[in-house]
Amino acid sequence: MVNSEYLKQTVEPLLDWFRENARDLPWRETADLRKKTDMTGSGSPERSYYVWISEIMLQQTRVEAVKPYFLRFIQALPDISALAVCPEDKLLKLWEGLGYYNRVRNMQKAAVRVLEEYDGRLPADYEALLDLPGIGSYTAGAIASIAYNIPAPAVDGNVLRVISRIVENEEDITKQSVRTGIEAAIKEIIPKACPGIFNQALMELGAIVCLPNGMPECDRCPVSDLCLARLHGKIEEIPKKKVKQQRRIEERTVLVIRDGFYTVIRKRPKMGLLAGLYELPNMEGHRSEDEVLCYLKEEGLAPIRIQSLPPAKHIFSHVEWRMSGYMVLVEQMSVSDNPDLMIVEPKRTEAEYPIPAAFAAYVQYLQILLGQEKYEQEKKQ
C-alpha cells in the first residue's frame, strides 16, 4: 500500500522544480509550463494530438531519438484526419526505425474511430480515451491530464521507479497490483489545478534525475530529503523487478540480391512478427552457399557470384535473430511466379518501402539507409 499522505509533501517541490527545469521538447508548450500561473488546460486539437503521438513514440524509445521522428510525423500527418487516411506503406515508412509497428497501426485505427465518433478530436474523457485502440491507462492519463487538465494519473516506468524509491516500496513493479496502487496514490494527491504539469514533473524526474540501475543523481533531486530509499541506503535495490524470461534464439540467413540496377525484397505476412513490413529475402537457419544457390535457382534467378557477409544479430522483446548473410550477384533480374518477391531499385526501397531495423546490417550493401540514418544523411546534403 502506497502512503498517499506521505507523498503529498512532494507535490509543491516537484512543481517548482519542473517549471524551472522542464526540457524544451517539440510536443511541449514549455514557455507556458514555466509560468507561475497554472494553465487552463483548454486542450486544443493540436495539443492533444501532439501529446498522443509523442507518448506512443516515447514508449521504449529515448527522447533524443524520438524528436526528429515526431517532427517528421506531424509534418506529414498534421492532424487526426490525415493519420486516419494515410496509406499503410507511407505510415510504416514514417515509423521505420522506431520498432513496435503495431503501435502506429493501432494509432491509425484509433484515428479512424475518433474521426467517426468524435469529429476528429480526441475525447476529453479518460474512459473514452482508454477505449480507443492502442491507448492504455498511462497514455490515456497523459492525454487527459496534459491536454485537457483532467486529474488522471499517468504512470509509466519512470513514475513507477520514482514513487517506489520515495516511499521505499519493495514490491515487484511489474505486477499490475503495484501499478494500480501507485495510480491510486497519485490520484489522491494530484493537484486539480495543474495535473498535467505534475504528471510531467514525475516523468521528467525519472527521465533525467532518478535514473534506473542504481544511478540516480540524488544531489539534483528536489525531493531527495523525502526519499526513503535514499535515506535507508536502498537506492540500488529499488525498484524491484522480476527477472525477464530468456529470449528465444532464431537463426536466419539473409540474402542481398543484386544485378546492375535492381534488388529483390518481399513483403512479410499480415500477421506475426514485423507484420506487413518489407524485408530482404531470408531463410530459416544458417544455410550453406549450395543451399542458397539452390533456392535462388528455384526462384528463377541465375547467380553469377556469391559472397559471404559478416554475421549480425537483432534483439526483439522475446526473440533474438542471429543472422548470417550472402551478397549474390545475378544475371538480368527476373523471378519465378512467386508473388511475395518484388524487383525494385534500391533507392526506391529507401524512399517508399518500410524495412525494419532488423535488416540494417545488410541493407548497407545496397548502399541505402533506413529510418533516422536516412534523414540525417539528407540533412547533410
So what's the overall shape? elongated
Content of β-strand: 5-15%
In CATH, the homologous superfamily of the largest domain goes by the name Hypothetical protein, domain 2
Q: Helix-strand pattern, N to C?
A: HHHHHHHHHHHHHHEEEEHEEEHHH
Radius of gyration: 24 Å
Provide the CATH top-level class of the largest domain: Mainly Alpha
How many distinct helices? 18
Total number of domains: 2
Q: Quote the average pLDDT.
A: 90
Order of neighbouring strands in the sheet with most strands: 4-1-6-5
Distance between the termini: 56 Å
Main sheet makeup: 4 strands, mixed
CATH architecture classification name of the largest domain: Orthogonal Bundle
Helix content: 40-55%
Structural class, by secondary structure, is alpha+beta
E-strand count:
7
- Give the low-confidence spans: 36-42
Q: What is the fold's blueprint, element by element?
A:
Elements: H1 4-7, H2 11-21, H3 30-33, H4 45-58, H5 63-76, H6 80-85, H7 88-95, H8 102-117, H9 126-130, H10 137-148, H11 157-167, H12 176-189, H13 195-208, H14 228-231, E1 248-258, E2 263-267, E3 278-279, E4 282-284, H15 289-298, E5 303-315, E6 319-330, E7 341-344, H16 346-352, H17 360-363, H18 371-380
Parallel strand pairs: 1-6
Antiparallel strand pairs: 1-4, 2-3, 2-7, 5-6
